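It is worth pausing here to work through a concrete case rather than discussing structure prediction in the abstract. The textbook approach is simple: state the sequence, then state the predicted structure, then interpret. We follow exactly that order.
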Amino acid sequence: MKAKPRPPLYGLMAEFQGPEGLLEATKHAHAAGYRRMEAYSPFPVDGLAEAMEFRRSRVPLVTLIGGIIGGCGGFFMEWFSATIHYPINVGGRPLNSWPSFIPVTFELTILCAAIAAVLGMLALNGLPMPYHPLFNVDRFDQASRDRFFLCIEARDRKFDRETTRRFLEGLQPLGVYEVDH
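Step two, the predicted structure:
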């Protein structure tokens, strides 16, 4: 009988008792050259983002672009309707009277920036994510209660199944688990 092939590996995950162990393990993993890793904890751990060299978010740029598009779109809509589509001469006022366009321009700037911020945050975070390979590990449900986890992904350049396992075991975790796709 032919043996079943092993499912592709997502990574290796180590479980720690407290935030100090997770923080130290993350610092050691980063110093060892691992870059594709994620840490999971039931509450924010001070210094963890810095230990992982967390990159700045692109959500502010997406929000700015959304606001600029909304502002330009609002101004163009007002200008087009007042000067091209339906020009009305009121008391000799010029058709392109930009001060009257400001409220709509402002409102559309804010609206489009807010929508871009929400959609950009969801897209850049990869949400919604109804399934993640970490959910296959039985102990991972403790991440929202009282355990701390560090997962080194298999797509990391330095990742080798046995070498990474030995490295994680050297950090004194409660356990090291394989995370299948």
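Step three, interpretation. Residues 9-56+133-180 form a domain with the Alpha-Beta Plaits fold (CATH 3.30.70). The chain has a mean pLDDT of 92.
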